[in-house]
Amino acid sequence: MIRRTAIALFGIWLVGMVPLHAAELQAGVAVVDITPPIGYRMAGYFSERFNTGTHDPLQAKALVLRQGHEQAALVFCDLLGISRQISERARQLAAEKTGIPAANLLIAATHSHTGPLYMGALRQYFHDRAVADKGADPHEKIDYPAVLAAKIAEAIGKAANSARPVVLSAGMARQEGLAFNRRFHMKDGTVQFNPGKLNPNIVRPAGPIDPDVGLLRFRAGDKELALLTVFAMHLDTVGGTEYSADYPFYLERKLRSFLGAEGVSLFGTGTCGDINHIDVSKKDPQKGQLEAGRIGAVLGATVQEALPKLRPQRSPRLAVRRTIVQAPLQKYSTEAIAQARKDMAKIGTRQLPFLKQVEAYKIMSLQMLPSQTLPMEVQVFRLSEDVAIVGLPGEIFVELGLAIKKASPFPVTLVIELCNDAPGYVPTIKAFKEGSYETVNSRVQPGGGEKLVEAAIQLLKELATSQSSSSP
Known about the structure:
By secondary structure, the chain is α+β, with helices and mostly antiparallel strands. The protein has one domain (26-317, 386-425). The chain contains 12 helices and 23 strands. A 5-stranded mixed β-sheet has the order 5-4-3-1-6, with helices on one face. It has a 5-stranded mixed β-sheet with strand order 15-13-12-7-17, with helices on one face. Strand 3 and strand 4 form a beta hairpin. Helix 9 runs parallel beside helix 12 (448-465). The model is unreliable at 1-21 (pLDDT under 50).
């Protein structure tokens, strides 16, 4: 009798430790138009330019995940960046609307250089100048930041309302020939970014690339619900004055026959602070919609070829962890700040060397921050024992993303930059010593990026060993 009781108790203990029927994974997806009015200022460069139309609409694409009592959402916006103030507001609104904890919401920008200029020191300077000259800013007829936060929350709400059981498949493809490290060692001993095509003074690239294409496929029954592609390459191929999502627009067009009428192509930008699409070994121009179309088609073909090889995740285990890294900010003297304030008037002109323009902008950006340290949020989403997503703020150098993936206990680890904040470039300690554009344009002190790597790896290891599982 005692032996039978012990066996029964042992069986109860086993059931409590390992649920016989884990909760199914549910997902919902929604797309909301976030295109600003015609005539709004455009982001991406250091000169003032105004929108003249829309090539393709800018969108916020939300993916909500639910398993048992665990909920999370990821939103991908066709924008240069998302400020912390806007992401916090959008997360608050979405949490109130859906019940998803704000800490479990990731809002990422794809880094399109053909979206609106609605935040930052450069926008503030142009706006203040327009108000001083004209009494009002004719290019900001709506409160776009408020509209944007509301629309992001709307996308999350719609995705949450459409959640249904799904099967997740995941894997990695490899894309060669599209991405290039844009920093180069030169014959004079310096490191330069974008030194020009066929420049005879180029010695070699100053860093690697990340050829991995991370893929998450969500199927609802016999239909494609969503496909997330993560690739590390700058979105700066289009240029001009029309709104455009850049090459992810053409990626979705390439995948449309696979996705069907309702499936959504989501794009997360990998760590590409020092990566772009320019092949300096060839003289051919690489700018405009034709180039964006070429990139989208090539990447789309690689994705399509990889889809049959993705592995279904039979035991999803949704969980989210996050932490805040306090990164010390760069400091400047009162005299340097005063000079930068004067130099803002020379941005976009030939009156000041380019890197001096960049430095002035960066110094004034620092003055808009409330403290001497920058709170940088690191998020990790576990989807299964094999799959995890890491979200980092800022434009992260590729070496940092590669370090996270190398140390990750999850075979499929997707690292996405420009999540929840856009504090500029986050270079490596090595790059800070080398100098050039990205380090001049960085707000954080050397070592900030390495702290993000440490934090991400720690969270990944915690989730890999955590016994928590989403059950009813």
